[in-house]
Amino acid sequence: MRGARSARVRTDYEAATGRIAGLPLRRHHVLLVAWTVLWFLLVEPSGGFSWHYLRQGEELLFSGQPDGGLSLYAHHPELQIGPVSLAVARLFDPFAPHTGAVLAEAAMSGLGLVMLVLVGRTAAWYYLGTGTNHRRLQQRLLVAGLAFIPMWVEVSVRFAHLDDVLALFFTTLAAHALSRGKQIQVAVYLALAVDSKPWALAFAPLILALPRPAWLRTALWFAGLVAVAWLPFYLGNLDTVAAAKFTIPNQPASALRWFGVTDPATPWWDRPTQFALGLALGSIAVWRGRWPAVVLLGADARILLDPSVYTYYTASILLGTLLWDAVGQKRLVPWWSWIALAALYGGTLLIPSDSARGLVRLAFVVVSAGYVLLWPTRRTRRPRRGGHDRADGGVTGRRERALAGTAS
Fold first, then answer.
1. H/E/C letters for each residue in the chain?
2. Would you say the pTM of this structure is higher than 0.85?
3. Residue 321 lies in a domain
């Protein structure tokens, strides 16, 4: 009798989590892995476009050359790559250039799959105690993941931007830690994101989603860890300040053109405004009880005001829509992930006019930001933290936590 009951419980658990024949594999994970491998094989022959910047940066950082070490950013402001990213790039230095690039691309592609799992578990923890249907969550994650992977391969393989990859990966870890109430982890991961790529500062409002008493301590940890990574460069060579003024061309397809900005390069006010807008929108989202929208809004601010229109920028948008589709709302169909892919990536390929592409970028930002901030959403009532076991005698609470940790 006990054996039959155990077998029935195991069968129910496997059905709820989508496991395949008792293996630690889930159906949607297998499909997403296959989808990732397919895109990797399609893109890799023309991949690694920017990997040489990572190689150059890490060689200079760890060299004794006058234009390297702590003087790196003062002499090479074009290397807008955080020190954490350069340190990670160092791991591929022992290999031949081509081999190292392919290994890095494969590793970065794998991180995209890890992020999908993390987002699924973030959603499961976020809805813990609300009777989450994990099979529906897995279906939602699968459909959103099918849109996410092509853009992830764009940033991780075609351009091989390790700095953007790490910034988004650590941000995903921060969101997962936030869903579990891990305050210090949120600070550590957000700081690592900024230390990988400075524009990740726009995701800092995630700290405000923590309980108010934790704000100061978490913010101090965050600021301290950012300072540990960046301050040595500013103290080592005061000319490093000039790196923040590095400009790039203002491309015709940029949304900036629709604001009447025709400067040939980045206007002096652009970067500060970009950060301020991202922080402001993210803070409003948290105030509105919609912290899963913070990443999307920060990425929106970036593509709205950035003078460049590289396709890998869209990866940050797709992470934002993925978090919103999986965590911010409970619709079965993740519309925003596919809208973003069609508008920002499909538009780049299919719309011939630079001006029209800029208008599409502008329209996406306005509509997506307005939707996640203003559109009515059904608030999910969650039990008080720590009360899951007491509310149902212990068994259901423990089962839900196990599902949240492994089902997605």
1. CHHHHHHHHHHHHHHHHCEECCEEEEHHHHHHHHHHHHHHHHHHHHCCCCHHHHHHHHHHHCCCCCCCHHHHHHHCCCCCCCHHHHHHHHHHCCCCHHHHHHHHHHHHHHHHHHHHHHHHHHHHHHCCCCCCCHHHHHHHHHHHHHHHHHHHHHHHHHCCCHHHHHHHHHHHHHHHHHHCCCHHHHHHHHHHHHHHCHHHHHHHHHHHHCCHHHHHHHHHHHHHHHHHHHHHHHHHCHHHHHHHHCCCECCCCCHHHHHCCCCCECCCCHHHHHHHHHHHHHHHHHHCCCHHHHHHHHHHHHHHHCCCCCHHHHHHHHHHHHHHHHHHCCCCCCHHHHHHHHHHHHHHHHCCCHHHHHHHHHHHHHHHHHHHHHCCCCCCCCCCCCCHHHHHCCHHHHHHHHHHHHCC
2. yes
3. yes
